[in-house]
Amino acid sequence: MIKVFIDGKEGTTGLQIYERLEKRGDVEIIVLPEEKRKNINARKECLNSADVSFLCLPDAAAIEAASLVENPRARIIDASTAHRTSDGWVYGFPELSAEQREAISKAGRVANPGCHATGFISLVAPLVKGGIVPADYPFVANSVTGYSGGGKKTIAQYQDAERDYTLSSPRQYATGQMHKHLPEMVKVCGLEYAPIFNPIICDIYSGMCVTVPIFSRFMTKKYRVKDIREYFAEYYASHNFIKVMSEEAVSGYIPCNHLCGTNNIEIYVGGNDERIFLASVFDNLGKGASGAAVQNMNIMFGLDERTSLV
């Protein structure tokens, strides 16, 4: 039996992790009474008695929570931004490589990826790792996301019956190019420079589509669209949650919310041999948050990674 504590169970990610785990026969969830939810000593006791704790907290609170763990056998999966580029923490994207999956399986501290970063890394890391594009490539990425990624305040704003009419329109944000996911995008992909990153929030509850255009003239050698699609298909062939879509799938519209409720990613490769279009589609609350966290937990405890995710 795996003892689990979710610190921040009341938030969007915490609630989804709870829902994914509560019916499992191999998991015992430690529940902190409501009146003790902000009691630091009560939280410390839970964090140290659990086999694994999920930190679904703001960054400062996640740092504090991690500092409370004194039991060397107590493991942590942090869903915040706080530790994604920190030494001593393993980045929780097992599809990066066999070595990354192995590191997660042995880790005591795992940093869950950001949602936008998940899409960008799924597209860019294989290209850099395979030597298809150089590490100093001038990447540009656009990311369309559902409003649930903004947390309770944003959800309430969008679901307000008397909301401002502008919320019906896609809205660009983080225009100062200082989005909090940029550091992990750069580090995990091994980039020399941060990309231009354009996140866009839309009037859908959840779903995400991250797109990255590539000019073939800046690649290390001439690659066709077909070559890139075949490369991605081979790169992700052994993974359960990532599927590289066919040429036909790229010819029409690509919705960003059709994988909601799953832990899946669909990768699209299109365009032409001069200007190649890459897209990563998934649920920002699934593979972009709670699903990825549960997947990492499964790997850390030697379980089938698909447990409670299919």
Low-confidence stretches: none
Q: Describe the main β-sheet briefly.
A: 7 strands, mixed
Number of strands: 13
Number of helices: 9
Could you write a compact summary of the structure shown?
This protein has 310 residues and is of the alpha/beta class. It contains nine helices and 13 strands.
Give structural notes:
This protein has 310 residues and is an alpha/beta fold. Helix content is 31%, strand content 21%. Strands 8-9-7-10-13-12-11 form a seven-stranded mixed sheet. A six-stranded parallel sheet has the order 2-1-3-4-6-5, with helices on both faces. It is globular.
Question: What brief labels describe this structure?
Answer:
310 residues; alpha/beta; seven-stranded mixed sheet; six-stranded parallel sheet; 9 helices; 31% helix; 21% strand
How would you summarize the topology of this molecule?
Layout: E1 2-7, H1 12-21, E2 27-30, H2 40-49, E3 52-55, H3 59-68, E4 75-78, E5 90-91, H4 98-106, E6 109-111, H5 115-129, E7 140-146, H6 152-158, E8 171-172, H7 182-189, E9 196-202, E10 208-215, H8 225-235, E11 242-244, E12 265-271, E13 275-282, H9 286-300
Parallel strand pairs: 1-2, 1-3, 3-4, 4-6, 5-6, 7-9, 11-12
Antiparallel strand pairs: 7-10, 8-9, 10-13, 12-13
